[in-house]
Amino acid sequence: MFSLERWQEIFETIAKNKLRTFLTGVSVASGIFILVLLLGVGQGMQNGIAKEFENDASNSIWVWTRTTSVEYKGLNPGRRIEMTNEDYDFINKKNQKYLEYKSSRAREWGVVVNYKKESGSYGIEGIFPEFQMIENQEMIEGRFINKKDIDELNKVAIIGNKIKKDLFKDKEKTPIGEYIQINDIPFKVIGVYSDKAGEREEDRVFIPPPIAQQVFNKGHKVQGLAYTLKPEENFETAVQKSEEFVESMTAYLKSKHIVAPEDERAIGVNNSLEGAKRFYNLMFMIKAFFWWVGICTIIAGVVGVSNIMLIIVKERTKEIGIRKALGAQPSSIIGMILQEAIFVTAIAGFTGLVFGLALLELAGPMIQTDFIRNPSVDFNVAITTVFILIFAGAMAGFFPAWRAVRIKPIVALRDE
Amino acid sequence: MIEIKDLHKSYKMGSNSLHVLKGIDFSVKEGELVSIMGSSGSGKSTLLNILGMLDEADNGSYFLDGMPIKNLNEKIAAQYRNKFLGFIFQSFNLINYKTAIDNVAMPLYYQGMKRKERLEKAIHYLSKVGLADWATHHPNELSGGQKQRVAIARALASEPKVLLADEPTGALDTKTSYEVMELIQGINDEGKTILIVTHEPDIADMTKRIVNLKDGVIIDDTVVNQVKATANV
């Protein structure tokens, strides 16, 4: 294998058969090249879709209520359903095993908020400390609401980064410790949050739930519930658990508020996992398709290489006879043919790999869209494919070579 | 040098078998120049192939330089061919994509000789057959006689004990044939043992001994007065 003489012999053969070598090389290189591109774009799509789901914690469940749409137990449709603190507590207690973070939401839209001479209209939400994790919000200044604020009924507020920009024109000065007026009631700003989803998620003010219920006269009512579920080992169980939880929760809410079981409208649930599952399925299909096309390409490459190797050996039957007559050992002939096949496929394979990777690297940034991001290839996969092709080329060369050295030299010599 | 006793060989042709060699007894001493004659189908090429270990006998014994040639595996056969035998074929059997010098150097490659050494030796034998100036030419740039001379140089390069020539002049015109024979005679004069298969009487006359084969048996084996090829050129 490492004999210099053998290599000289092989290079000589390759140099004398440029077209043949070139064709073998092209079929291998193009196979690898196409596979790398397909896998790269597939990965890019996966990255893009994954990015879309990065915003909220991906296993979050949001619950809200509307009016009933079905007549049930003598009650007319169109009745407004409203959840209460008791519902929230009951659900939490009953579904403890599923839940990671939880919060009720006492919401009021379009509330005027003033700071000195500046004012704006924002959504106010009374939420629990864990809401921060559910919304995946980051504190850029100060802190989030804590249990103490809720217990002591502190009039404190967390504002979004956008609100800070709107109301606090003096950029040098921190809003922490300042008082803003919500419904003419002063609240102390204790934190500023930012949201990965951008400004549209940053125009809310968070305050402790009991305060929100008092200020907006909501009594015990809450407008929404938000949950994240405990992480699971794999995606399938996570989806299954979330479905169980949603099932149990809606069943409870429907029976409590006398809603028909088939009424889809009264209680709205957004289970982000279900949405994610749809996208993951789509993504899986796309990847599977790319793999399928890629594998077909590789098979075409393997067939091409095999074909060429068969012809090469056939063409060289006479030469093999001559070499045997001159005293070549069978192993030396097989070795020579194999080494040549492996050498050519390896060089071509790696060339295709390098070109594919280079194209992904260069053209990748140019095709960035919402759905394609960082197209890249698992290097191991690519390398493995190259080796499969090399192996196939070697196999394709080995069997005819084996047959050729087994025929008697005199027969091989007669071959024209 | 060569000792053959009761050699048999038959070929399977579909369902019936063809008995080509029917008990050959034959020996060649060192330095002889023997021609094997016979009409086509007499088994002369088969005999040569068996002598050259390119084919195997069914029965009988064969000793080459005192060594039994029997049931050799491919590896040993290859070694023996490389060490003991040089081949000259009717159709030259040069490798087309290799230059004359590389063709001549090929048996030396299989002897495991270093490249530099083998090229030196190859050029030596090429000049011996008068083709030193054609060393870097490919076979398709050479005439038939030149090709055969390259083949002879190749057969000589491994310094074998016996040269086996299968119709060496079969594809050449008379003049070229005599030139090739002159070369072969010269090599024989240096002491090399040579066997030539031919069906041309004038070529046979240029050897020292003529063995006549008919239907797989030797019908005649006589020592003749060698006609020097130079006289005819």
Strand content of chain B: 25-35%
Average residue-wise pLDDT of chain A: 84
DSSP E strands of chain A, number = 12
Give the class of chain B from helix and strand content and strand pairing.
alpha/beta
Unreliable parts of chain B: none
Strand order, largest beta sheet of chain B: 6-7-8-3-9-10
Class by alpha and beta content of chain A: alpha+beta
Looking at the chains present, what oligomeric state does this protein adopt? heterodimer
Q: How far apart, in Å, are the first and last alpha carbons of chain A? A: 30 Å
Q: How would you describe what is shown here?
A:
Chain A is α+β, with helices and mostly antiparallel strands and 416 residues long. Chain A is 54% helix and 19% strand. Chain A contains 13 helices and 12 strands. In chain A, the strands form 2 sheets. In chain A, strands 3-4-9-6-8-7 form a 6-stranded mixed barrel. Chain A has a two-stranded antiparallel ribbon with strand order 2-10. In chain A, strand 7 and strand 8 form a beta hairpin. In chain A, helix 9 packs parallel to helix 12 (379-406) and helix 11 packs antiparallel against helix 12 (379-406). The longest helix of chain A is centred in the last third of the chain and has 44 residues, at 272-315. The relative contact order of chain A is 0.18. Chain B has helices spanning 44-51, 74-84, 100-110, 115-128, 144-157, 174-189, 201-205; strands at 2-13, 16-28, 33-37, 59-64, 67-68, 85-88, 162-166, 193-197, 209-214, 217-223. In chain B, helix 5 runs parallel beside helix 6 (174-189). In chain B, 34% of the residues lie in helices and 28% in strands. With 233 residues, chain B is of the alpha/beta class. The chains are: A alpha+beta (416), B alpha/beta (233). Chain A binds chain B through residues 5, 8-9, 12-13, 16-17, 318-319, 321-332, 405, 408-410, 413, and chain B through 49, 52, 54-56, 74-75, 78-79, 81-83, 87, 89, 93-95, 97-98, 102, 106-107, 109-112, 114-115, 154, 158.
